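User: Could you walk me through two proteins back to back? I'd like the raw sequence and the structure tokens for each, with a short line separating them so I can tell where one ends and the next begins.

Assistant: Of course. Protein one, sequence then structure:
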Amino acid sequence: MEHYQFVNHILAICKEAKIEKLDTMLVPLQKAFEKEDEALNLPRKKEGTKELRELDKARNKAYRSLKFAIKLHLNSEEENNRKAAEKLSEVMSRYPGLQRANYDKKSGMIKNLVSDLYGTAILEYVKLLKIKSYVDRLSNNNKLFDELYRSRLKSSIPMGAFDVKALRAETDAALNDVLRRIDSLDDLEPETPNLTELIKHYNALVEKKHFTLSHRAGTSQTARKKRTAGYAALLQPGFAQLEESLGLPSKTLSFTGKTKGTGTKRNYQLAIKGQAGLDGKPRTVWVIVDKNGKLSEVK
């Protein structure tokens, strides 16, 4: 967003300068800027996501209704109804975990289930129990879901359509062309109206950007040093006990500054003075700190 905003400022001050020989160079920069803008403003959720969730809920309800209808007939007083319900239960059992499946898998499972229930050998049981309306409901809800799912895929943005890194490079190339034109005008036609003011304005923008980046780098470095000092202070009281348990001479452990993990599961790397690995570097161990401040080696 900062890169985008910087280019936005450059475009604005160049347009305000109204230098005819510069205007032609702004066209490619404007196009590149607009592409970057489109990439940065992509919706976080694909269109139709909410509708898909609602349709998925609808087919889940239809599936549960069908299961309950069959289960009801398992306790029927009519033997034929019980046998029909048992047969349909067996068909339903062929699709375990249907409701927990992902969208595509669930769609396929429902299609196959409906196909089984509409099959010549099974449909007579469905009709006997008078539950065809439940099967129709499941089938129709699944079709509605599938139609929206496919339409969303057609209208969605292809993977890789917006390579922000490549778009930034394209914008930078167009920006460099603009700056070369400004430099050329300053060299060959320094008397151009508004040119001097434009250059001052541009230099002010660049200076501010450099200051922001330098300040950020310094702040990050200071924060890292502060965290490292805090970890070192946390570990120091446990060095003596750990050295004893590892059979090391006193005052041979030191914190390298490296950590892995977070919170109470964070591991800390310690260097062992006077001991070197095959690479010639000091041998290290990873440790963890318990709530009492005791250090334990992590194998």
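----
Protein two, same layout:
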Amino acid sequence: MALNTALLDRRITIQRATFIRNEFNEEELTWSKISDLWARRRDASDSQKIEMMAAGQVGSFRVSRFTVRSSSLTRSITPVDRVLHDGVIWQINGVKELDEGRHRFIEITASRDADNG
């Protein structure tokens, strides 16, 4: 079944890290919104969580996949960026183009601490 844009029913914010100088001329990390997007969210299966644990990412966490429309902006998203969804910060683990036709959809795999939100 082909992905329908009507399934993009969640609102997410993509944030990008930037560095600013504080009053002591020290660099500080801050997060800036680069875009609000409509997305589809699908939680990962337990086997995918086990694979992440085997890769050294231990702890109580949740993994989800967010599907967004492909654009020049969404194709520039990397694991250095992060997702804000329902007031919770998600760390991006990977970004890939889906097989739904060239440049139609991007899938963002992200994880968050399950104990905090």
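The two ends are 32 Å apart (CA to CA).

Let me know if you want the two compared in more detail.
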